[in-house]
């Protein structure tokens, strides 16, 4: 079968931050070469307003854009809107869902990850990963009086603070919130803010936001609903009204050092004749039996049982490797990702991987760790493209410095948060309260850095 593209084409699979960054870097390095970006989604993730805060700290926005905007910026990038049906590594080609075949010289897999759900197939367990799942969550929330959030990562932190008009029970396995991002002192400070009434209005996001629905109206190509979309950007909730059915602003209860033991549907719960707890009206955990009936009940490992309208599983992600495994002998990491070496190469020749789909398996720096975050997706995508270019031209390449020290800038509870591994620093800044915070510190504590 004759290939739709000649050998020598660079192919990148995935329209998320890692894939788009990789394609852009390849387009810069090889302006006369066609760069194919294969994505199942009608929109791609673009890094905008990039700022190099320091040697290791980066700050940027993530925008969803129509693929035509990427093609306009880089004429040698061609976006193929289709999922990958099969990879034949021995023949250096991929087959897409629309029936086409593309031969590659170098291939980079940036297909991201999917939510690691606590319970598969349960209609009351939602995962939030891409635009479609976020909109489904918003739809379900408009009818909800109480939800449970399980997990202690970035999505869980944002949800716990942003959801209004709904009782929120937040179950975490750690002693303190945000254990991955900041230390116990910063967690205590943010917990007090989380449990207090929200006073400030949401900040408006003035940049254009493109949705999947808009893109579908502009294109005749249909994408399957079950495709895994690209990860949400840092301010994914900015365009969503995350409000339940109740009139109050914010009501949250945190259950620490516990995980989900069992999930019961309403009929099953009635048969078991167990008792669920009412939502605590104060923070002293006064135990009262809930007289309300709920669609689903969640039993925690600490013995508590709560009823709710639905549960949000925010317990991490699973690398999206399944479309590429059949017939290919990839080495996989302990977390299920494609193992990559210090040049982002997988175990198969001429195949690279970057972002959430891969597992970094080189001897790491003692102060760097892999986390499936937007910053690392951008860094990996850019570095993978440089490695592909170096291999093509026969040049040596050194490990990028961004893999020497873990650093991440984001925002939680309207506070700018900087997490740096090593001394494990958490930096909380809030423009409206910075002076007040500083005035309460002794001269030795004037720095807004808290050390774990």
Automatic annotation (TrEMBL):
GO terms for molecular function: oxidoreductase activity. InterPro entries: FAD-bd_OxRdtase, FAD/NAD-bd_sf, FAD/NAD-binding_dom. Gene3D superfamilies: FAD/NAD(P)-binding domain. Signal peptide: none annotated. Its cofactor is FAD. Residues 10-226, 287-381 form the FAD/NAD(P)-binding domain. Keywords: FAD, Flavoprotein. GO terms for cellular component: nucleus; sarcomere. This is Pyridine nucleotide-disulphide oxidoreductase domain 1. It comes from Rattus norvegicus. The gene is Pyroxd1.
